[in-house]
Amino acid sequence: MSSKNPGHVARKRFGQNFLHDPTIIGRIISAINPKPEEHLVEIGPGLGALTEEILELAGALEAVELDRDLVPVLRTKFFRYEEKFKIHEADALKFDFSSLQQDEHPLRVIGNLPYNISTPLIFHLLSFSGLISDMHFMLQKEVVERLAAQPGENHYGRLGIMAQYYCQVEKLFIVPPGAFNPAPKVDSAIVRLIPHKTLPIQAKSAELLADVVRTGFSQRRKTLRNNMKGWITGEQLEALGIDPGLRPERLSLAEFVAIADAIYDLRNSAE
To answer: What's the CA gap between 143 and 14, in Å, rounded?
Structure first.
């Protein structure tokens, strides 16, 4: 997340919108509440508006930045923090976040995620959820609503179900377009994701659950019976206490886990 700098123009291809509002920066830092013994990871620090505040408070900060022109700017700006600040010039979508873990201390992840990669990046980070204590992200408001949505709500779908499988999701506050330079055309919001230490509902196969949820929402207007054809029959859904005539957005996480577990058992019994 970042501030104004006349020497660097925000790039559309990287989805850059630099944060500059000191009041919003203060609220975000308060929400994150970095501590001297903690190890933080910032995705897309931009020009370092949050970076500077975090370096004052945290024990260590590692940044993952894709824009190679920003890397020397950040190194120069924060040279006095050399011992506790490290920049990885890399694509966060492909980055191995487990490589940052030290001495079994969990990672705290923050980032102003570009709208065009926010969903795949969150899915990528969920695969490292066992190494992460919490995540604070600035996202398009609609993405935050999708993460926190409950069954039957308009924004409920694959992203929210899988995020809630792995994490507790908390919507924190809205960030208006004027807090950024350039100003985006939409509202943003801050969300906190806290990975469950023990999953409240555990699927027999998380990979199969992800496939079932993806298939279930492949055509939102269709019923489960149609969307899950070839995976599980209407009769088998009824045996689970699930109406095959429902659309996927009516099902809870627990019901999707029940479907995935039933498919898992059917496949293993057929072997």
So the answer is: 18
- Any idea what DSSP says for residue 153? S
Write down the residue that tokens 């029940």 correspond to.
258
CATH of 12-195, picked from 3.50.30.80, 3.40.50.12780, 3.40.50.150, 3.90.650.10, is: 3.40.50.150
Amino acid at 70: L
- Which phi and psi angles does 34 have, rounded to 5°? -65, 145
CATH of 206-270, one of 1.10.8.110, 1.20.120.450, 1.10.8.100, 3.20.20.70: 1.10.8.100
For the chain, domain boundaries: 12-195, 206-270
As a whole number of angstroms, the distance between CA 129 and CA 106 comes to 10
pLDDT in tens, 183-237: 768 889 999 999 999 999 999 999 999 999 999 998 888 999 999 999 999 999 9
CA angle, 49 as apex, 182 and 133 as ends, to 5°?
Answer: 115
Rg (C-alpha) for the chain, rounded Å, is: 21
Give the residue ranges of DSSP H helices in the chain.
Answer: 22-32, 49-57, 70-77, 118-126, 141-148, 158-166, 206-216, 224-227, 234-239, 253-270
Question: What's the whole-model pTM score?
Answer: 0.88
Scan for tokens 């809870």, then name that residue: 252
Distance CA 83, CA 95 (A): 22
Yes or no: say if 124 and 148 are a contact pair by the CB < 8 Å rule: no
